[in-house]
Amino acid sequence: MAIEDVHRLGILPQPHKLDLIVAETYGEEEVSILQTARLWTRNISAYIGPQETCVHEARMASSFRLPIISYFCTHDETSNKELFPTFARTRPPDTQISKSVASVLKTFHWSKVAFFYKHSDDSEYAKIANTVETTLAAENIEVKFRRSWKATYHHGWEGWIENPFEAMVDETFQDIRIYVVLGPYHEHIGLLVAMEDRHLFENGEYFVLGVDVERYDVDNPSKYLRGLLKDDIDTKAIQAFENYVGVVSSPLVDFDNFTQMVNDYMEKPPFNFPNPLNYFGGVKRIRAEAAYLYDAVLLYARALREVLMEGGDPYDGVAIMKHIRGRRYVSAMGETTR
């Protein structure tokens, strides 16, 4: 879809056109690295992707001096432009949310906090937590207590693990008033209820800043008042949420039309992915990364145009990046970003 729009809009000067080579990685880094090398032997001019991993692939691309634009991978290491001079991304790294956390705390003049975060083996929260703490320190905000929990806490499910926040609150509430919690939204309820059970919110002296790396679900806001996969809203959570503010990515803007178009293109070659919901008049839900993918192609094409107009080498990834970094553009999600 993006490539057809590049041609339809006449972004590239004649006779240049974009062509697409698809390399399936199956989400495996070893396969992804191999595909990166194979694509280079096919005389490609740029990499769009890969998906789950990108650190080693981006290093390879830089050694080939080819541009690589990620629409999915969020590894923070690739932000080092000395090691990754030909790498850019259209999906922001999750660690960038730390700046928003610091901004909210400074707005309310909260300079000392307790920081709770999820630290499971299969998540990136620990890395984000380190970035948050570093950012807060740079803004003279003291993390007086740092605690973490590992096992996923499903609030409201009988027989599940005990609420991990109860002990953490008991250890800290006498010496701190502001809590920052980083993890899935449905686990924030555990902290709020633990504090509500101890009547900490009664006099307005305590507050919780919840950090969720997923986008705000504007179509289902009540889910934030429930445990995961629960139908009933927790009444304690309703009261506790009066002492809570969330830091969360903004909802998608005008995404319905884009979703419909992507569903149509997914059924065409080279992907040929049938949409079973067609029989019911529905569409497959499209993740935000689809828009980041579309953005990556358009961003590359516009940078390539400028390099070509300057008489530059279209295979020069460093030159391409000079026309990408800091560039403002309107995303397929309707947002103006850079």
Describe this structure in words.
This protein has eleven helices and ten strands. It is of the alpha/beta class and 338 residues long. The two termini are 21 Å apart. The mean pLDDT is 89. The longest helix is centred in the last third of the chain and has 22 residues. It has two domains: 141 residues, 3-Layer(aba) Sandwich (Rossmann fold); 155 residues, 3-Layer(aba) Sandwich (Rossmann fold). The chain is globular. Helices cover 36% and strands 14% of the residues. Helix 4 packs across helix 5. A five-stranded parallel β-sheet has the order 5-4-6-7-8, with helices on both faces.
By DSSP, the count of extended strands is 10
What is the name of the CATH superfamily of the largest domain? Response regulator
Helical amount among residues, as a percent range?
Answer: 25-40%
Tell me the span between the first and last alpha carbons. 21 Å
Mean pLDDT: 89
Count of structural domains: 2
Global shape:
globular
Please give the CATH class of the largest domain: Alpha Beta
Runs in which pLDDT lies below 50 for 5 or more consecutive residues are none
Largest sheet: 5 strands, parallel
- What class, by secondary structure content? alpha/beta
| Widest beta sheet: strand line-up | 5-4-6-7-8
